[in-house]
Amino acid sequence: MSHPGPPDTGVLLMAYGSPGSREEIEPYYTDIRRGHPPTPEQLADLVGRYDAIGGVSPLAERTERQAVALQRSLQRAHPGRFTVTVGLKHASPSIEDGVRALAEAGMRRIVGLVMAPHFSALSIGQYLERADAAASGLGLPLRGVCRWHLEPAYVDYLSGAVRAALASLPEGTMTVFTAHSLPERILATGDPYPAELRATAAAVADEAGLRAGDWRVAWQSAGRTPEPWLGPDILAVIDALAAEGRPGLLVCACGFVADHLEVLYDLDIQARGRAERRGLAFGRTASVNDDPSVMDALAGLVAARALA
Ligand code: FEC
Questions:
Q1: Residue 261 CA: which ligand 1 atom is closest?
Q2: I want to staple 142 with a disulfide (CB 3.0 to 4.6 A). Which of 78, 86, 110, 253 is the partner?
Q3: Which pLDDT does position 136 carry in this prediction?
Q4: Each residue of 261-304: pLDDT tens digit?
Q5: Which atom of ligand 1 is nearest to the CA of 58?
Q6: Atom 26 (ligand 1) nearest CA
Q7: What confidence category does residue 2 fall into, taking pLDDT thresholds of 50, 70 and 90?
Q8: pLDDT for residue 308 is more than 90
Q9: 75 Cα–ligand 1 center, Å
């Protein structure tokens, strides 16, 4: 149904953000490290990883395309009601910039959606806290979508991607579902993140018809800090699979929604290299990016949150 009057509900589509150029890598890394600049060695290591994927991550462009697709889906289902804008955790426009833009455009309420499916206080929780603080500072109510790890369109997309990728991998290939590791201390507070990753993995494995024993979960891209991070790490899992005599592995990075550094470097270069050195075939499922059925489903979640 068409909405009378101008759009009044802002949608803040939030994502991690990425440096736009080599010069922006240092301030970006400093922001990720909560204002502590990286050492020259840490910076050189990160610059080297961006160089290895072509200098710039595709994440910024993928996030923009997701925002366009979300706006299109919302407009189709609820003409004239919603205005979508982007807010990034570690790059510009920031989450606060996005909230301000929606306020200036006359929005009376905001729905926050994070381009990450699994809730952790250190992930989606932080995005929503920042968005909420910015919105309440401007007198706007904000509702967040806290998780979407079992959204049927997302599970369908991933199970189709798993089936398609397995078709060109050897019989007996292990499917490994991954998400970004987080510091192990989240376990002490009962954070739902690990259980939500397992739930996505189980739902996708079931829909893709994987046999128990032919899939598992692992963590990837752990931070370079001394504290313990959630494991097992994907690289250790690759070693274990080689020791077991598995012929190959398929990584389904279901904790990520777009092509970016952690997929294109950590998986396509680092994990693939490790697997090939161990004699394992390696595959990775295609990223969701702005897949129309997933974006329609996310639009449905946003609308339900706004209209409840
Ligand atoms: O393509 C790009 O340019 C950006 C890729 C990128 C994504 C991403 C997603 C997540 N991260 C999460 C947690 C952490 C924690 C730390 C941390 C550190 C980094 C560094 C880079 C980086 N992350 Fe990231 N992350 C991406 C990139 N991340 C670069 C710094 C160097 C390094 O360690 O590799 C540790 C911070 C600290 O020092 O305390 C924690 C989580 C996600 C998935 C959810 C989301 O997208 O928000 C969780 C994409």
A1: 1
A2: 110
A3: 98
A4: 999 999 999 999 999 999 999 999 999 999 999 999 999 999 99
A5: 1
A6: 262
A7: low
A8: no
A9: 32
33 C-beta closer than 6 A to ligand 1? yes
Ligand 1 pocket check for 46: Cβ under 6 Å: yes
The pLDDT of residue 307 is: 86
CB of 18 sitting under 6 A from ligand 1: yes
As a three-state string, the secondary structure of the chain is: CCCCCCCCEEEEEEECCCCCCHHHHHHHHHHHCCCCCCCHHHHHHHHHHHHHCCCCCCHHHHHHHHHHHHHHHHHHHCCCCEEEEEEECCCCCEHHHHHHHHHHCCCCEEEEEECCCCCCCCCHHHHHHHHHHHHHHCCCCEEEECCCCCCHHHHHHHHHHHHHHHCCCCCCCEEEEEEECCEHHHHHHCCCHHHHHHHHHHHHHHHHCCCCCCEEEEEECCCCCCCCECCCEHHHHHHHHHHHCCCEEEEECCCCCCCCHHHHCHHHHHHHHHHHHCCCEEEECCCCCCCHHHHHHHHHHHHHHHHC
CA 257 to ligand 1: nearest atom: 46
Q: How much distance in Å is there from the Cα of 267 to the middle of ligand 1?
A: 14
The response to whether residue 123 sits with its C-beta less than 6 Å from ligand 1 reads: yes
Q: How far is the CA of 260 from the centre of ligand 1 (A)?
A: 10
Closest ligand 1 atom to 264 CA: 1
